[in-house]
Amino acid sequence: MADALKDKIADVFNEPACGTNVSKSEQQRKKGCAKPLTPGAAAGGCAFDGAMIALQPIVDAAHLVHAPLACAGNSWDNRGAASSGSILYRTGFTTDMTELDIVMGHGEKKLYRAIKELVAAHNPPAVFVYSTCVPALIGDDIDAVCKAATEKFGTPCIPVNAPGYVGSKNLGNKLAGEALFDHVIGTLEPEECTPYDVNIIGDYNLSGELWQVKPLLDRLGIRILGSITGDARYRQVAMAHRAKVTMLVCSKALINLARKLDETYGIPFFEGSFYGISDTSEALRIMCRMLVEQGAEPELLDRCEALIAEEEAKVWADLDRLRPRVAGRKVLLYTGGHKSWSVVSALQELGMEVIGTSVRKATDEDKERVKEIMQTDAHMFDNMAPKDMYRLLKDAKADVLMSGGRSQFVALKAKMPWVDVNQEKHEPYAGYVGMIDMVRAIDRAVNNPMWAELRSDAPWDDPLPATTVMPAHKGACPVTHIPAGVNRPVAPTPPRPARAEGPTGAGFAGLGSSETDFEDC
Amino acid sequence: MPQSADKVLDHAPLFQQPEYKEMLKNKKVKFECGHPDEMVKEIGDWSKSWDYREKNLARTAATINPAKACQPLGAVFAAAGYESTMSFVHGSQGCVAYYRSHLSRHFKEPASAVSSSMTEDAAVFGGLNNMVDGLANTKALYDPKMIAVSTTCMAEVIGDDLNSFIQRAKEAGSVEQDFDVPFAHTPAFVGSHVDGYDNMQKGILTNFWEGQERVANQSINIVPGFDGFAVGNMRELKRILETMEIDYTFLSDVSDVYDTPSDGTFRMFDGGTKLEDVKAALNAKATISMQEYCSPKTLEYCEKQGQETTSFHYPMGVAATDELLMKLSELSGKAIPDSLKLERGRLIDAMADSQAYLHGKTYAIYGDPDFVYAMARFVLETGGEPRHCLATNGNKAWAKKMQALFDSSDFGKECQVWAGKDLWHMRSLMATEPVDLLIGSSYGKYLERDLGTPLIRLSFPIFDRHHHHRFPTWGYQGGLQVLVKLLDTIFDKLDEETDVPGETDYSYDLTR
């Protein structure tokens, strides 16, 4: 690994703004915060994937993967990050390195030529060049190539040094943030700045979630200056350094970027979420308060409160109409980076019973909130291997599981209705209106007639009617040792074994965390 | 000329060449003297209104675009399923040409049938001579083992009596006395092809069973009914029966008749139920019909012979297949094997996987009564709503049954049944109360174009798509096929609705 990359990773791991990191000892901190990978155990995506996910939503840029076909081929257009304009980001650009390129060291030249062709054909505002395992191992210097290409063609070429082997998807997110900070942010100045300019970091506009929130900001007169990177344009990211406040959405993955914007450009940041009604209101409140602290007119706070009151009343009135469809249903939440408590409280308000929730990646504060809302911590759990989850679902007698795509098939095999609430979902659940989408999805999942067929046994497995003649018994009974024969008392209907009663909620604590994280996001 | 040997244009692009376009335009301008385009559009729009719908539904005399065929078509289809059997339709030859082309265009196979080719003098003096000559010629030309006689309207209107005609033809030496010539009166002005199927089946069974002694055994007779997916469905049903180790006889099996290999041999006759098997079928324990409306008279006749009888409504989907398997198990005493239970689990798994896309989709369905019932039932199982269910050959009893089906599900609340209505009615229904998807035959493509509702081809006839009939729609495996067809159409529609770059394509996703 190149020294520069090594230093960068060490730097990323030493995140002063991260509470977990600060509380570590010096030695622990050196080891970094990425979970060590367990060879032989199922694992999530790599650093390259993480970088790609974070940057690909910059829709007008070309994303060029310097690698043999595999990296681009497998990741090509695999996320539903919605664009309101360009579709260039969905095009799979790669150098498609061959054996000869690797053996003869033609990689750098090929990359340079690829950039040249790409700029000539598409004239994008920028080209993001991703390093991957192979060119990193053979020592291709993508920084140098990008520098030369930028100078030659006049189109910014941004090296993204996150080859897969350096670590996890989360690390890749961070490295993508570093690339933006080092090469993009601050390279363009906005035509005008207002005291109402914000950055939103960590929302990728999946299924259009940013669009569910943007109208609220529009009504408050708040402008998303820097979108990192939901429905983003390259120029928009480049001007992010002129925003007044940064909101870090849902995830700590890009906290390094938020902190550096604060340190370098004096843009304070806060962590917030647009999932759930109270979280959305809270995020708007904090955003407005911080803007006012940064120089916006104080009347913004009143407008914000008025908006919150109006929107909350409206969404509750709408949700009330869906209440009969979902009230009384038992929900099990298994989410990734979300702060679960906000969704939990909204579901409870609708008369649903949340019988368990994951608190992965949640802060201690969040865990306290969950405990407060659910009145016990017995229903909180961390990561879970598929077999544990299967058991939990089978036993918990939930009506619906809300989780990410990777739990979908585990849920279905456990005969459990399932609502997708993670990154790969096809419906947006953000902001106030998003709750309506979410409750509609729950309604659809729990009330589909197919579940009755799924959950019941095949009809011929029901106890046979008394009139049906059973086949003759053979051999001796293993319990009573009475041999089969004419004198043997024969029950016309075989008694069905009683269903074992599983734990009904109190037992979640015992399931604990699994070594293997199947819900890596 | 635009056609050249260097680049030969297909039919569709050929007449889009400027010369032809000009020619076609001139024809319209010079000879049509039609109304201005705006007025045509205005009236066209009005014909999709509630106002027009009411007038349309009040129609009493004209039928426009009927979704049914005539009795003899069903009779020819039923007879085709027996070993080396030639259908002989007593009446005018044009009708028979239609049955052959209909079956041929659907199954992409030769379909044989002959006619007594009655002419005006036959209409005046009776068709006996045509019968006498016709049977003899048929025997001599095609050497069938059996000739199944049905009738067109012409013979029915003049009142030809098949029973006595066939007797007199035999006496006149057309065919031997013991040659099998079953018959059925199949007037097109009564009922539809499903009734013709029933009549012919009863005719054939009567021919072989009448006056015979029944010695009951454990075997089960299957009456498949008129079915455009017969090739795939019969093979699937046979597989199920063989998996369950049940002794069975198909009464009319067209699966090999309408699916012969291209191996250098032309088969005038191939496959079909063996005649000795039909004779032996009298001894069966039970006769079960896959399609109730295709078999009331046949089952009544079987019951009179002492057999148990049951009928189903086209066993498609989970619950319908469950019922069929349990009945088979009950009648035969054979257990339902685990392999079928696995298939059941897989179908339900597939339904669960795609549930979010199927839930709440609305459908218009038309076809034969049994098919419409089954299709609506399966749609309800997926959480869809079969809003308009139409059978031109459906009666009041069928409508009642459909209503009971709607009432059994939360998803049936807004569903309506339309017995005896035609596809022009369907146009009004779909224009005023639109649905997401249309399920029917090839004839639905005009509704698809007119109203923009995607068509899923699942009922007879399918002329414009090839080979679908080779795959089953019955049983759990068939249910999977149907499910995939529904989903493919749903996804195609979704892609189509989201394909404008920069405008709707935020949902044009690679993964659904």
Main features:
heterodimer; A: alpha/beta; Rossmann fold; 3 domains; five-stranded parallel sheet; disordered C terminus; B: about 500 residues; alpha/beta; globular
Counting DSSP E segments of at least 2 residues, the number of strands of chain B comes to 12
Largest inter-chain contact set: A-B, 33 and 35 residues
The average pLDDT of chain A is: 83
Taking all Cα atoms into account, the compactness measure Rg of chain B is 25 Å
The CATH architecture name of the largest domain in chain B reads 3-Layer(aba) Sandwich
Which descriptor suits the 3D outline of chain A? Answer: globular
Broad CATH class of the largest domain in chain B = Alpha Beta
Give an overview in words.
The complex is a heterodimer of chains A (521) and B (512). Chain A is an alpha/beta fold. Chain A has three domains: 41-183, Nitrogenase molybdenum iron protein domain (Rossmann fold); 197-314, Nitrogenase MoFe cofactor biosynthesis protein NifE, C-terminal (Rossmann fold), CATH 3.40.50.12380; 327-453 and 504-511, Nitrogenase MoFe cofactor biosynthesis protein NifE, C-terminal (Rossmann fold), CATH 3.40.50.12380. Chain A is built from 22 helices and 13 strands. Chain A has helices spanning 3-13, 19-22, 26-31, 47-55, 69-75, 99-104, 107-122, 133-138, 142-153, 169-183, 209-220, 234-238, 255-265, 277-293, 299-326, 340-349, 364-374, 386-396, 405-413, 431-447, 450-455, 508-511, and strands at 62-65, 93-94, 127-130, 157-160, 197-203, 223-229, 245-249, 269-272, 330-334, 353-358, 380-381, 400-403, 418-420. The longest helix of chain A is centred in the middle third of the chain and has 28 residues, at 299-326. Chain B has three domains: 71-209, 3-Layer(aba) Sandwich (Rossmann fold); 220-340, Nitrogenase molybdenum iron protein domain (Rossmann fold), CATH 3.40.50.1980; 354-465, Nitrogenase molybdenum iron protein domain (Rossmann fold, 3-Layer(aba) Sandwich), CATH 3.40.50. Helices cover 48% and strands 10% of the residues of chain B. In chain B, 47% of the residues are buried. The model of chain B has no long low-confidence stretch (mean pLDDT 94). The A-B interface holds A 76-78, 80, 82-87, 90, 207-208, 408-409, 412-413, 420, 424, 426, 441, 444-445, 447-451, 453-454, 458-460 and B 318-319, 322, 325-326, 329, 336, 341, 344, 348-349, 351-353, 355-356, 358-360, 380-383, 409-411, 501-502, 505-507, 509-512.
